[in-house]
Amino acid sequence: MDDPTATVVVTINGQDYAATNNGDGTWTLADNTVAALAEDSYSATVTATDTDGNSASNTGTVVIDQTAPAAPTIDAGNGTVITGTAEANAVIEVDVDGDGTPDLTTTADGDGNWSVTPDTPLANGTEVTATATDAAGNTSAPVSDTVNAAAPLVSIDDVVTSDTTPALTGNVDDPTATVVVTIDGQDYNATNNGDGTWTLADDTVAALPEDSYSATVTATDTDGNSASNTGTVVIDQTAPAAPTIDAGNGTVITGTAEANAVVDVDVDGDGTPDLTTTADDVGNWSVTPDTPLADGTEVTATATDAAGNTSAPVTGA
Fold first, then answer.
1. Which of 29, 156, 195, 231 gets the most CB atoms within 10 Å of its CB?
2. Are 119 and 103 in contact (CB under 8 A)?
3. Do residues 240 and 305 touch, judged by C-beta distance below 8 A?
4. pLDDT in the model for residue 168
5. Is 70 left (phi over 0), alpha (psi -120 to 50) or beta?
6. CATH 2.60.40.10 applies to domain 82-146
7. Residue 43, exposed/middle/buried by CB under 10 A (0-12, 13-18, 19+)?
8. Distance CA 263, CA 112 (A)
9. Is the predicted pLDDT of residue 281 greater than 80, yes or no?
10. 108-146: per-residue pLDDT in tens?
């Protein structure tokens, strides 16, 4: 107000109130002067009249708001950034050490979004509490969230196969984590099955030449925590050497093969294995027919390696 001697009257809710002209370009209507107003929005008109009887008026808005805003939402995430939503333009106070005193303060934007960044990331398990205070000074109920800074546990199963585009599998302890497999320089989105396992479907990986590959699986949870683990994928399309076989006197059949190969033995000539065993770590194997084989019986064996490749047959008698 530009007249230090003008009289000032404020009209609100149909009542006039004489205000104080402070003589310094401002005027004041003291607290508790206006009759109590119910919660609502009011037009308030101020009229200044100088000593010559000239007057001018202006109108503003007075909002009486005694309703606390809704509690904000809060996501403590992994403790690096805390985010949430609240009433638009509300002041957000965040307590990160549990003493009831705000440690971080910000203001929600026009859409109600807010975020604060602690000076140092908060430890896993820290409980973070936030309140929202509106323009009228009403404060919401508090709301809390707990920092999740623990990365998921993830693993990948080693694979030995003749399939150049193999399925890959493994375990993950977070049913909502995203899972990505990296092999031969390429990333592939795997399926989190939600039951503690993940799967990368057959024929998803680009065809791999015969070789041994490192495959890395990375799991990332909804708070941005991630962990990786590495396994081995062996593409093997080479059949093992044919085993050796000694039918002996028909009571025990023995031989050698690729270490740990599965040895199938046909004793009746129909092409279907009658006896199966696994070669030991140095390649020795043996099978015992239920009854000794007759003299002159022709016995045939094949060896199948871990990748599923089968050798040529070998026969003994």
1. 156
2. no
3. yes
4. 99
5. beta
6. yes
7. exposed
8. 69
9. yes
10. 999 999 999 999 999 999 999 999 999 999 999 999 999
Q: What is the DSSP letter of 9?
A: E
On the question of pLDDT at 178 being above 90, the answer is yes
Architecture (CATH level 2) of domain 154-235:
Sandwich (2.60)
pLDDT digits (tens, 9 = 90+) for 88-106: 999 999 999 999 999 999 9
Tokens 């007249």 sit at which residue?
3
> What single letter denotes the amino acid at residue 285?
W
pLDDT of 317 > 80? The answer is no
For 118, what's the count of Cα atoms within 13 Å in the CB-facing half-sphere?
Answer: 20
- Entry pTM: 0.74
pLDDT at 1 over 90: no
Mean pLDDT, residues 232-238 taken together = 98
User: What dihedral do alpha carbons 84, 86, 90, 96 form, nearest 10°?
Assistant: -40
253-316 in CATH: which number? 2.60.40.10
Q: Is the pLDDT of residue 3 over 80?
A: yes
Q: Which amino acid is at 74?
A: I
Radius of gyration for the alpha carbons in the chain, expressed in angstroms and rounded: 41
* CB distance 218 to 180 below 8 Å: yes
What torsion do the CA atoms of 91, 97, 100, 103 make, to the nearest 10 degrees?
A: -30
Q: Where are the domains of the chain?
A: 7-64, 82-146, 154-235, 253-316
The DSSP output letter for 137 is: S
Q: Do 82-146 and 253-316 fold alike per CATH?
A: yes
The rounded distance, in Å, linking the Cα atoms of 29 and 31 is 7
- Whole-number mean pLDDT of the chain? 97
Tokens describing residue 125: 């398990």
10 Å Cβ neighbour count for 30?
A: 9
